[in-house]
Amino acid sequence: MSAVFTVSMIALVVAATVVVGLHGVRLTRSTSDFFVASRSVRPWWNASAISGEYLAAASFFGIAGLMLDRSSEALLLVTGYTAGFLVTLLFVAAALRRSNAYTVSDFAQARFGSKGVRHVTSTIVVLICGLYIVPQLHGAALIAAAVVGVPEWTGPVVVAAVVAVTVYSGGMRSITFTQGLQYWVKVFCLLVPLLLMIAVVATRDIEPAHAGLQAVIEEPHRSGYWTISLLVSVLVGTAGLPHVLVRLCTSRDSRAAQQSVALVVVLVGAFYILPVAYGVVGRWYATAAITEDRTDTLVLRLPDAIVGGTPGQLLTAVVAAGAFTTFLATSSGLIITIAGVASQDLFGANVRGFRRAALVATAVALLLALVTSSSRLTETVGHVFALSASTLFPMLALGIWSRKVNHSGAAAGMITGGVAVTAAALSYYALGRPEGAVGDLLAQPGAWSVPLAFTVMLVVSRLRTADPRRAAAVERFLAQIHSVDPSTRAQDRDRDDVD
Amino acid sequence: MTSTDMVLLGLLIAVLGMVLGAVAGVLVAHHRIQPTAGPSTDMKLARAMAAFSHGIDSPGVADALDEIRRLLAWEGVALVDRYGTCTRYGIDPAVIDDTAVNSGPAARDAVEIHPGLVRMGLTVDDVAVATLFVAHSVVDRALLRTVREVAGFIETQLAAHALGEAKESKTRAQLLALKAQIRPHFIYNALNVIASFTITDPERARTLITEFAGFTRYWYSERGALTSLAEELRAIESYLVLERARYGDRLTVRVEVSPESLSTRIPHLSIQPLIENAVRHGIESGSGRGSVTLTIHDEGALTLIRVEDDGIGMDPDRLRAVLAGQLDGVHVGLRNVDLRLRETFGGAFGLVVDTAPDAGTLITVRVPKFALDPTL
């Protein structure tokens, strides 16, 4: 019965996604008033869109599951995922918006004046976004197996098919309106079941299924290095996530971009109360079936376990449908980012190149998701954050805040950071997740790979003498990204005129 | 193989990867490989003199001068540019100052003006740009010949630099000139409309003058060649308020803009002329009523801009001639926009016009969401 509810709810969601995507143009402002048309997206709506894009499988399923048996890690991640936007706000947001760069690759090209650096950046962007899709597809597999009761592969295949169809048919542009809506859908789908569960627990006086669960769960001991390294990766990695940074250019000016990012801290922080609350409730009421299977399914199974009956199944369907939209929206956002970058650098910057790139990216991601399996959604995501922290963030931070870094340094640093994190992740899994000091170094490379990337960038830049003509262009670029926007200046002038 | 061995192997692979990464980074960024054999003196000289290709005031010139002196075993060398800035090694500044006062303008040839001091004027395109001094205890024919050769090399490099500069400033000037060429034909009509309102409806006249001021401010603003679509749209709004005052209900305008596209950078005043063209065509149609539709949305890495009207249309052959610059006439504004778009974004990004007589006109512009500002 639960399967029927869930499948029909998901079908509804998919249909709605396709319809909204295909008629996406209708959601753009249509008016005879140019003044209204030229108004940009409001910061809080843009913030919703960034949050909607950012909160993905690891946040929706992963955190709650982690709360069950590794609560300290879960809380660390939640703190890092939220505070990462403070790093974005402090070091990246305003300057990146003023550079008028549309993507991270555009920024790299404008700052370093080199096609080589652009290609390196684009390759890393494709890598990060591609790896980021995999957990989304695994999340879909989880729904398929745990709720619907069909083979795991159906989940990823359905998501990939819907994404491919909508992106290819020209719909499902990464429209700010729909992505902003996504955030509120996610909040709704977690909040309503949670409130009902709390109400049921409070009124019906249910026996905790695992009265002594805390005693049963043995939280793994983590070294100080492990903790610090995790925080470094997540904090700094957030500030380099390409699909988040793309949204900054939708802001009217740098001030609006800063406001958006500040609001994201509030919205993302508020959202994380929900999965953490699921985890806390789960610690008391999760049945053995959940804790012994995959903890990631906690959010899906808890409503049924507590409320029970048809209402419980309905709630499960709501959560599952919410999760499914999350995976759909985030995957399509990522595919659009990949296709945008890849079509510009590989397939030729036109619509056909864009579509071809989107199809190839979807197929590769699906294949990756089908041949791999993750026991925890947060684990894969952790390495993606480390990758972003050791490649794109150093390039952005030094590109914005230092005039000493040149194209050789930027390329060398990004490649070094990327290779280091990839090698660490691969050897970690190849060695079967070793314990101890070496295991920590490989599982959480952030604390050594980020400084390594920074060092290589600075050292290699020093080895190469700068071209004087390039130096002048860099000065102009830095002056542009560090001075007040022309539009803000124009507003101030207008105000002066009125006085 | 024990697990410790495998850990070590993994770390080894990681370290190797890092080294490879650093090397690959340098290669990728440079696309060229340095020669392996040690450079000869001639090559060193040529490389030192290449510093002059960045201009006589570039920071590398001083080091290059010293390198030349060392390679040729001169006792002293000095270079004085036309503003009197002196870069010198091994020559007393007093000697050069005396020379400047007592010996008249520098000759085009290497001349021994004092015992042990050779002077030669450097020119680029027959304009004196600098004076080269060389100090050496024995001044013979061989030394004079070497000085002439070195001077000749430096002149060539400086000329190359001047050529590059000229090319850059030509592009810049071309863009600015094209921008200046855009003439708002409606201005005179607008002023007349405002004049007619000053008696009948002074309040309206006041509003119109404010709009006019807003438009002209945008018109004359000096912010480089590129502006955001949002700012261009605001200027178009002012323009349309003025046109509506003249045409009233006869003019219908529809806008459909995706907010994500508003920060796209376009050449200053590249959409307004298209709207003006559409308004003109719409109103000139038989019915005397016109409707104009502007659609802007994103398309992958590009932003798509479409301006459509239901007016009299244009003769395609005539339009082609105008866009090719073979014919002057009413659509010369379109040619201007077309040229500036191509100049800014590259040859593939011009106007695409679908039109026929009495069939309306659809102008499509595709611009990359990101482009470097050519005038910055």
Task: Characterise the protein shown here.
The complex is a heterodimer of chains A (499) and B (376). Chain A is an all-alpha fold and 499 residues long. Chain A contains 24 helices and one strand. Chain A has helices spanning 2-22, 34-37, 43-54, 57-69, 71-98, 104-112, 115-148, 154-168, 176-204, 213-216, 224-238, 242-245, 254-285, 288-292, 298-306, 309-347, 351-371, 377-390, 392-401, 407-430, 436-443, 446-463, 468-482, 486-498, and one strand spanning 29-31. In chain A, helix 11 (224-238) packs across helix 18. The relative contact order of chain A is 0.17. By secondary structure, chain B is of the alpha+beta class. In chain B, helix 2 runs antiparallel to helix 3, helix 5 (141-181) crosses helix 11 (332-345) and helix 6 packs across helix 8. Chain B has helices spanning 3-30, 41-49, 61-72, 93-102, 141-181, 186-200, 202-220, 229-247, 272-284, 316-323, 332-345, and strands at 76-81, 86-89, 111-114, 117-124, 127-135, 226-228, 251-257, 265-267, 290-299, 302-309, 351-355, 361-368. Residues 32-36 of chain B have low confidence and may be disordered. In chain B, the strands form three sheets. In chain B, strands 2-1-5-4-3 form a five-stranded antiparallel sheet, sandwiched between helices. Chain B is elongated and about 90 Å long. The chains are: A mainly alpha (499), B alpha+beta (376). At the A-B interface, strand 1, helix 2, helix 6, helix 7 and helix 16 of A face helix 1, helix 8, strand 7 and strand 9 of B.
